[in-house]
């Protein structure tokens, strides 16, 4: 019965999730789980007592992101799963602290204990995707906790809070960032790449030619977010530069005052026109 349950579970996961998200091979597997934000963008807050090591990100400043990198759940299925044994697993993430990851691991245990005898991977997946941030009290702000060994070693060794099960839990909960100062820059980079990825594949209706175009063929003004196809915006820029009306390289949307960035103009117009614009 175990064997059949397991096979059905794995087939179901394979049919629901794509191969980049779910991998399984010879009783071990991996799930990449993207936690859903309840508010987007979510603000990121950095510990005031720790320099981020980068002048672009002053201490404590709140920065918003729309995407967070996934948790990685690595698991193996023991022989008696699901009849009596739960999957062995570890949970890793770059932006949660070890104690937050431990809390999630204990919650996965609890879900298993309530459902012992039944396949559990999808329940775990669903919890981590849909409920984990709320469960950790992360709604509109993600406070990046500085709980790296260099900062907390002493309290871990001497503190009364170290329980007998801790050793086991430390191995299940894996914080993958080596240095606290790296987390915010990595989150911002991830968010930029994801936004870019989403933009180039999304479809936009150009407000000049009214045609639907893929993002990769469009330009988006930075502050207002208005989008036009490259063909239209190129002619628009070129006409204005040719007429010498350089100051009006602003978003064509009526009433909008957002100016185009120099590199957007450079990408859109012929070199000799860009040279004129630059002067
Ligand atoms: Zn157009
Ligand atoms: Zn605009």
Automatic annotation (TrEMBL):
<dbReference type="GO" id="GO:0004842">
    <property type="term" value="F:ubiquitin-protein transferase activity"/>
</dbReference>
<keyword id="KW-0862">Zinc</keyword>
<feature type="domain" description="RWD">
    <location>
        <begin position="8"/>
        <end position="135"/>
    </location>
</feature>
<feature type="domain" description="RING-type">
    <location>
        <begin position="202"/>
        <end position="279"/>
    </location>
</feature>
<dbReference type="GO" id="GO:0016567">
    <property type="term" value="P:protein ubiquitination"/>
</dbReference>
<dbReference type="InterPro" id="IPR044066">
    <property type="entry name" value="TRIAD_supradom"/>
</dbReference>
<keyword id="KW-0479">Metal-binding</keyword>
<keyword id="KW-0808">Transferase</keyword>
<dbReference type="InterPro" id="IPR013083">
    <property type="entry name" value="Znf_RING/FYVE/PHD"/>
</dbReference>
<dbReference type="InterPro" id="IPR031128">
    <property type="entry name" value="RNF14_RING-HC_Zfn"/>
</dbReference>
<dbReference type="InterPro" id="IPR001841">
    <property type="entry name" value="Znf_RING"/>
</dbReference>
<dbReference type="Pfam" id="PF05773">
    <property type="entry name" value="RWD"/>
</dbReference>
<keyword id="KW-0677">Repeat</keyword>
<dbReference type="InterPro" id="IPR006575">
    <property type="entry name" value="RWD_dom"/>
</dbReference>
<keyword id="KW-0863">Zinc-finger</keyword>
<dbReference type="InterPro" id="IPR017907">
    <property type="entry name" value="Znf_RING_CS"/>
</dbReference>
<keyword id="KW-0833">Ubl conjugation pathway</keyword>
<dbReference type="GO" id="GO:0008270">
    <property type="term" value="F:zinc ion binding"/>
</dbReference>
<dbReference type="InterPro" id="IPR016135">
    <property type="entry name" value="UBQ-conjugating_enzyme/RWD"/>
</dbReference>
<feature type="domain" description="RING-type">
    <location>
        <begin position="206"/>
        <end position="252"/>
    </location>
</feature>
<protein>
    <recommendedName>
        <fullName>RING-type domain-containing protein</fullName>
    </recommendedName>
</protein>
<dbReference type="InterPro" id="IPR031127">
    <property type="entry name" value="E3_UB_ligase_RBR"/>
</dbReference>
């Amino acid at each position: 019965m175990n064997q059949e349950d397991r096979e059905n579970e794995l087939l179901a996961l394979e049919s629901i999730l794509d191969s980049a998200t779910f991998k399984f091979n010879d009783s071990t597997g991996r799930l990449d789980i993207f936690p859903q934000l309840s508010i987007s963008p979510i603000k990121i807050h950095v510990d005031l007592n720790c320099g981020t090591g980068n002048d672009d990100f002053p201490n404590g400043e709140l920065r918003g992101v729309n995407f967070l990198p996934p948790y990685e759940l690595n698991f193996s299925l023991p022989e008696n799963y699901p009849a009596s044994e739960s999957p062995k697993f570890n949970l890793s993430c770059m932006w949660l602290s070890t104690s937050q990851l431990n809390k999630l691991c204990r919650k996965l245990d609890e879900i298993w204990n309530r459902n012992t005898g039944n396949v559990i991977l999808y329940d775990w997946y669903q919890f981590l995707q849909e409920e984990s941030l709320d469960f950790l009290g992360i709604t509109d702000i993600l406070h990046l906790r500085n709980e790296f060994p260099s900062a907390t070693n002493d309290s871990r060794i001497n503190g009364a809070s170290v329980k007998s099960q801790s050793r086991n839990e430390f191995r299940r909960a894996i914080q993958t960032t080596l240095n606290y100062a790296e987390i915010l820059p990595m989150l911002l980079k991830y968010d930029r790449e994801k936004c870019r990825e989403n933009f180039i594949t999304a479809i936009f209706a150009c407000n000049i030619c009214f045609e639907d175009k893929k993002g990769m063929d469009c330009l988006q003004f930075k502050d207002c977010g208005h989008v036009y196809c490259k063909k239209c915006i190129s002619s628009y820029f070129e006409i204005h530069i040719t007429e010498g009306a350089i100051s009006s390289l602003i978003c064509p949307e009526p009433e909008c005052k957002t100016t185009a960035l120099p590199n957007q103009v450079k990408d859109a117009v012929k070199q000799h026109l860009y040279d004129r614009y630059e002067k």
